[in-house]
């Protein structure tokens, strides 16, 4: 069984109450989650206090402590994990901003290289990104799911379409509209 099938099988065992399944899941997903976290933090300021390991561990704890959350498969799991990592980054930025309200430096955020065109690539304020995603969600929640799956979870466009049960063309259009919306909102 490939990693995807093994992960899905373990998730099903977890939702059925198998306590050992979570322990078995860790070695299969940790490296992938760590790579996602490293990618998120690559665009952070040099003195950022969160490491990829800390980001993964905090997101893992949040996922483990959520009652009633049982991802159906690998894609669903990584989408949830990506959302939790985003929440950890936003919470971290809020704490930092609160500590620096006396005019300190703004929290710089994720470089949205996979959202950006070469001329647009730069750092984005984490809180501004979160606010932009919240505004977009009020208009069209599916477009935010596309961003979360594509950018934060690192899924391919085909996987995004499959996860959302939409065509690849619709997923691609949603991705392009969401990117345009975010660029406008963040300028």
UniProtKB/TrEMBL annotation:
Domain RNA polymerase sigma-70 ECF-like HTH: 6-186
Keywords from the named record: Sigma factor, Transcription, Transcription regulation
Domain of life according to the entry: Bacteria
Gene Ontology BP terms: DNA-templated transcription initiation
GO molecular function: sigma factor activity
The UniProt record lists the keyword Nucleotide-binding: no
This protein's record includes keyword Transcription: yes
PANTHER family per the UniProt record, alphabetical: RNA POLYMERASE ECF-TYPE SIGMA FACTO, SIMILAR TO RNA POLYMERASE SIGMA-E FACTOR
Stated name of the protein: RNA polymerase, sigma subunit, ECF family
Species for this entry: Dokdonella immobilis
């Amino acid at each position: 069984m490939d990693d995807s099938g093994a992960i899905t099988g373990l998730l099903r065992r977890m939702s059925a109450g198998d306590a050992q399944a979570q322990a078995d899941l860790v070695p299969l997903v940790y490296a992938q989650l760590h790579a996602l976290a490293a990618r998120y933090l690559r665009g952070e300021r040099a003195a950022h206090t969160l490491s990829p390991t800390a980001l993964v561990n905090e997101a893992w704890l949040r996922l483990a402590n959520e009652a009633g959350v049982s991802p159906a498969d690998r894609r669903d799991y990584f989408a949830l994990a990506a959302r939790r990592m985003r929440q950890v980054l936003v919470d971290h930025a809020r704490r930092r901003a609160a500590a620096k309200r006396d005019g300190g430096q703004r929290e710089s955020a994720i470089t949205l290289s996979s959202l950006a065109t070469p001329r647009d690539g730069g750092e984005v304020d984490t809180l501004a990104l979160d606010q932009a995603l919240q505004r977009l969600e009020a208009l069209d929640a599916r477009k935010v799911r596309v961003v979360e799956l594509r950018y934060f979870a690192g899924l391919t466009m085909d996987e995004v379409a499959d996860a959302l049960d939409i065509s690849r063309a619709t997923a691609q259009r949603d991705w392009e509209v969401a990117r345009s919306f975010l660029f406008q909102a963040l300028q």
